[in-house]
Amino acid sequence: MSLVLDPAAQDLLFREARTANTFTDEPVTDEQVQAIYDLVKYGPTAFNQSPLRITLVRSPEARERLVQHMAEGNRPKTATAPLVAILSADNEFHDELPQLFPHFPQAKDAFFSERPAREGAALLNSALQAAYFIVGVRAAGLAAGPMTGLDFEGVRKEFLDDDHTPLMVVNIGRPGPDAWFPRSPRLTYDQVVTTV
User: Fold this and answer.
1) In angstroms, rounded to a whole number, what is the distance separating the alpha carbons of residues 168 and 60?
2) Chain centre to alpha carbon of residue 8
């Protein structure tokens, strides 16, 4: 059975997708980010939760503050990318559930009245949304450099609050010279899939 998605789109979104390590200085506009979000917001989550929050780091001052919290090897990439996004989980996402899940507005209190339950759901579903976001960046013809090599608590204190948990930092832009490391191996179907 073949995939329905055009082979060129398959390549763009998956086969040729890699973490970009260098970028050109071509800016990434607010309109591009809006288009990415307007596409990926439709990706499914449990209870239609939308816990992902995106903090765009644009000013030189904010960039300097963020770079200090990145792992040493990630600092040059974050310092030079045209746009950097901090992706985080909103642990108070349940406040929007009556609007987002109107056929069962009681879900807010029935499942998410306790903070530990919210944190677990927010982490899982915002990570899912973060993956959609990265694919959306690719769909916009841009390259993404997602990174988890950072001081998470430092980023939270510097840019977020106690109700938000940082997930990753994503550098965004057009790929620059020598942007890609060689393709790393992948597991085979038989290594991953088990039928019971």
Assistant:
1) 20
2) 23
**Beta bridge partners of residue 87, listed in sequence order:** 54, 168
Q: Tens digit of pLDDT per residue, the chain (196 long)?
A: 689 999 999 999 999 988 999 999 999 999 999 999 999 999 999 999 999 999 999 999 999 999 999 999 999 999 999 999 999 999 999 999 999 999 998 999 999 999 999 999 999 999 999 999 999 999 999 999 999 999 999 999 999 999 999 999 999 999 999 999 898 999 999 999 999 9
The two tokens of residue 18 are 């890699």
Q: What is the pTM of this model?
A: 0.94
- In the block, tokens 């765009």 appear at 56
Secondary structure (3-state) at 54: strand
